[in-house]
Amino acid sequence: MRQPTAVESRGVDEILAVHELRRSFGGVRALTGCSFGVERGSITALIGPNGAGKTTLANVVAGASRPQSGQVVFDGRDVTGRPSHEVALGGLIRTFQISREYPAMTVLENLMVSPQRQAGEKLSTVLFHPRRFRSEERRHLERAVEVLAEFGLYEKRNDYARNLSGGQKRLLELARAVMADPKMLVIDEPMAGINPALIERLADHIIRLRDARGTTFLMVEHNLDVVERMCDKVVVMAVGQTLATGTMAELRGNAAVVSAYLTGGVVDVRAQG
Amino acid sequence: MGIILGYISTLGVYFCIYNIFAFGLNIQFGYTGILDFTVITFMAMGGYMAGVASLGPEQPGSGIYYVLGLIASRRLRSDYLAIVTLAAGSIVLGLCGVIMAICWLVANRIYRSTFGRTMRAIREDLDVAEAYGKHTFRVRMTAMVTGCIFVGIGGVLTIWFITALAPAGWGTSETFVVWAALIVGGCGNNLGAVVGSFLVAVLFNEATRFLPAIPAFPSLVSEIRNMCIGGLVILTLWFRPQGVVGERKARFFEVPLRTESREQVRVPAVVASGS
Ligand SMILES: Nc1ncnc2c1ncn2[C@@H]1O[C@H](COP(=O)(O)OP(=O)(O)OP(=O)(O)O)[C@@H](O)[C@H]1O
Ligand SMILES: [Mg+2]
Questions:
Q1: A152 and A62 fall within a common domain
Q2: Is the torsion defined by CA of B205, B208, B214, B215 positive or negative?
Q3: pTM of this prediction?
């Protein structure tokens, strides 16, 4: 494995650093040399017009898609092109833009899948040492119930995940990710299509997780109000590149950012006012 | 009377063997979502290995018959011969039953385990399971191999106890029958596999044997049989897509909810960042 040399330290503790990532799909160039860093323990927003390459970036970072060139360094390790499960075991969990629960499993089961490196995931343990994973199951179960209660899904624990409402699926997605005990969460539009009250709740959950557990967040989000309220840093992407980084206040004065949003089709008057 | 009982015990043996096939396929498809259309390959492999092994004298099926036959011819009057034959039949059935029971227990233990849950998660959404750190390739491989071992065991029993294997007679239709059994009975539930094996492999497969063969169309009966099973599959998918006994909801023992962990209350700060 290569050493993380390409990304020099910028004086802050960066849990994730991407450098000059390029990825194209046939003729479509989704990432055209994207570089930025995410500070450990921060809630960083990734914003940009539709088609800017945000989801592609999340895919590349999480190992779901290989970059044609560039580098991804997570937690001091070069994870460029490593398979998803390996990146996940390293402590980076991502959620999907469209909720993807395990439909025909119950809410509780959805959570119980998440803990990593479970002893009961080995066939030989299952067949010959069942006792070894029973206590582990019990532990995970207690934790899962606790997490469900935190996210207000306790009453739904024995429902099939496919029967949840859109908003509940969003909550489940986050609860399931928390169960995996990640160092960093990359969440792709966690608040798309949910009502303002639930947006508040999700935002509170994210802030609470950061404060209580020190989880780093990289959050793709279009709602600039939410971004302003929650995020420490903002990374703006346009046409596959990083356009600017900084706090929301800094970016508001950045003409390039404003124009990217105006020409990119997403206009949020309040955020620019 | 004796003939009928013998026939029933043969059916019982078939039933057990098809159960084992269906458990194997259930592990692959019902648990993990792997589309295995080569079930027959592993039946044949098991059968072949058993066949090779039974070139020696250690073939249990014929062994039992041999011992009982010996007793019968030496010590018993001919009146008892029928009873001894029956006894042999029921011993064979008992053996098959025991092996099937072991397979049942193993299959169910896997289903209920953490591993089984991971298999189901992979069935539900491979990419998500992968994104949660599951080595999906390895799990699917394990599921495939485990299922094939089950099917292979079924193949071995076929050779030992049915003692008829004509490679030409094992075509796609065998695979089809096992698939049909699982779909009709219900995927993801071994009880479904049992019900399906009974309905499809025993009732349909056997009942149609009583249709008179028409000399002009020697394959007509088997074609009708396949059509009946196909019809049954379509009816199931139409009216009861989850199968006669569908997959059951996972039940966990109820962990009492501690009152302080209601929503909006902080989580225990166990993990410090960067640890
Ligand atoms: N699998 C793919 N095959 C072909 N083109 C793709 C693929 N994935 C993404 N693209 C293209 O790459 C570009 C960036 O897409 P991406 O999904 O990353 O945008 P995004 O920033 O997430 O947009 P949105 O805000 O709408 O979610 C788009 O032009 C898209 O059409
Ligand atoms: Mg997107």
A1: no
A2: positive
A3: 0.85
